[in-house]
Design a protein that fits this description.
With 349 residues, the protein is α+β, with helices and mostly antiparallel strands. Helices cover 35% and strands 22% of the residues. It folds into two domains: 207 residues, BirA Bifunctional Protein, domain 2 (2-Layer Sandwich), CATH 3.30.930; 114 residues, Trna Endonuclease, Chain: A, domain 1 (3-Layer(aba) Sandwich), CATH 3.40.1350.
Length: 349
């Protein structure tokens, strides 16, 4: 697994494979009836040079759709030493199986392509699947196709013709204690595994597409995930405002101020100053989607935020932060120029 590492590093990596295997066995058993039947595999991939040491991408996954994992659909767990994280998501095999003659390879590649068409048809033709698919990109999943990043609306069309190595993954980073919690992995798997219901198992009849509801624990992790994304956006804007005020030569105590860290009742997240030294009330709306993503153009605003805006129309701004976990950027929106629509009711009894 390591070509130029210390014995301690080798021992550390040796311990990872059985842990990933345990993950695949757990999720295979948990979801086999709803989305399987699954096979599991554990292996190591190509080496990545890091600081004079070559680490391999330790990999484990559960797969379906073909007896050869390289030509199947997978839910995979990849130790990513370059980004110091665990890549979790849906993969189509890389179609690189060895010891296969040309005729067999063509047959397997055609079968892999049929899996891509099956999934594409399901996303296009089933509104529930499409809604669930689109929601993946609100949690930080990223789509890749044909060796490049792909938008959510492009990916499910491209897999009809270029299936191999297409994937949708989320990078799960360790917490402040250097640990990736099992409950966090469980949440991300629970969001993406429904895609496997559109993958037919070999020599079996198609089964109904299933979307299992989240458990209370998974819903708690969902709320935690959205809070984490929101906080990252607020901290990004705080740093931007510090830089802006410094460049403007404005120095005033408690500016900028991260008021959202003190209370949820302010109706905005950051208090700063404009170029004239006047108060600037900033509501930060953050997404893991890119600016080009069509679904990044809408967000939720609370009644309290609307109320504060109406009382401060001249100095209340919305900063929309895009792609916060990869290449963050933002644009300034004026709320009175946006279209709002009612979505839900407050009921008093």
């Amino acid at each position: 697994m390591l070509s130029s590492a210390t014995q301690a590093e080798k021992n550390h990596l040796d311990n990872i494979l059985p842990k990933l295997k345990t993950l695949t066995e757990y999720f295979s058993e948990k979801y086999n009836l709803a989305y399987g039947p699954f096979e599991i595999s554990v292996t190591s991939g190509n080496a990545i040079a890091m600081g004079g040491t070559k680490f391999k991408r330790v990999w484990a996954g559960l797969f379906k759709g073909a007896p050869n994992k390289q030509y199947a659909a997978q839910i995979s767990f990849v130790m990513n030493p370059r980004d110091i994280c665990l890549d979790v998501g849906f993969y189509f095999g890389g179609a690189a199986g060895r010891s296969i003659n040309a005729t067999e390879r063509r047959e397997l590649e055609a079968q892999l392509n049929s899996l891509g068409i099956s999934l594409s048809d399901a996303i296009i033709g089933n509104p529930d699947i499409q809604t669930k698919y689109n929601s993946l990109f609100d949690y930080g999943f990223k789509a890749h196709s044909n060796g490049s990043p792909a938008s959510s609306e492009v990916w499910y069309n491209e897999i009809r013709t270029v299936t191999k190595s297409a994937h949708i993954i989320a990078k799960i980073t360790p917490n402040d204690f250097g640990i990736i919690e099992n409950s966090t992995i469980d949440f991300f798997v629970s969001q993406v595994i429904f895609l496997m219901s559109a993958i037919p198992a070999p020599n079996t009849q198609p089964t109904p597409i299933v979307i299992k509801p989240m458990t209370p624990e998974q819903r708690a992790k969902q709320a935690e995930r959205f809070a984490q994304i929101g906080l990252k956006g607020e901290l990004y804007i705080m740093e931007n405002e510090r830089t802006k005020l410094r460049e403007l030569g404005i120095s005033r105590t408690n500016y900028p101020r991260h008021v959202a860290s003190e209370s949820n009742n302010f109706g905005y997240d950051v208090k700063s100053l404009d170029e004239n030294g006047n108060d600037l009330l900033i509501e930060v709306k953050t997404t893991t989607r890119t600016r080009e993503d069509l679904f990044s153009r809408s967000f939720f605003i609370s009644n309290n935020e609307l109320s504060v805006f109406k009382d401060n129309t001249q100095n209340y701004k919305i900063y929309r932060v895009y792609d916060v976990e990869n290449a963050p950027s933002f644009e300034i929106l004026e709320l009175d120029k946006l279209t709002t629509k009612a979505d839900g009711y407050i009921v008093e009894y």
